[in-house]
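Hi R.,

Here's the chain you asked about this morning:
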Amino acid sequence: MFKKKPKELLVMKLREDAVEPKYMTDGAVAFDVCAIENYTVYSTLVKVHTGIAVAIPEGYEINVRARSGLSITYPNYIAISGGGTIDSDYRGEIIVPVVNNSHRKKPWVIKYGDRIAQCIVAPIERCKLTIVDKLPETKRGTGGFGHTGR
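And here is the predicted structure, written out as tokens:
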């Protein structure tokens, strides 16, 4: 599917029983990471360990997102790190903070080996940050949080 030669992402298993992350299909843009322990998630925040660390190439980041399949099975599941970034200079374990918003009605049981989140490796660009007194105007202006309607 992807014609361009891929960048190399170095992956280190921090535990022998850590599940190797992988792309599930030829067209997948994200690779899945798995839990390395069993968890029962009620409404409190739980940090799900993956047992892997990565060396992201300079100029790239990893964006950790919720898996769409999990959101169908567990509609109240939230990967807190959804939209979260792993910087290229971070070498620690990938940990996925999750919460179950079912308000204790139905616990979310995570088992060893369950695919818990997906990770997208993406190029980034840094900008020079310049403090100004006024920003250039746009048609949208300061409209946000649903300003365009439903």
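One quick note: The longest strand covers residues 46-55.

Cheers,
M.
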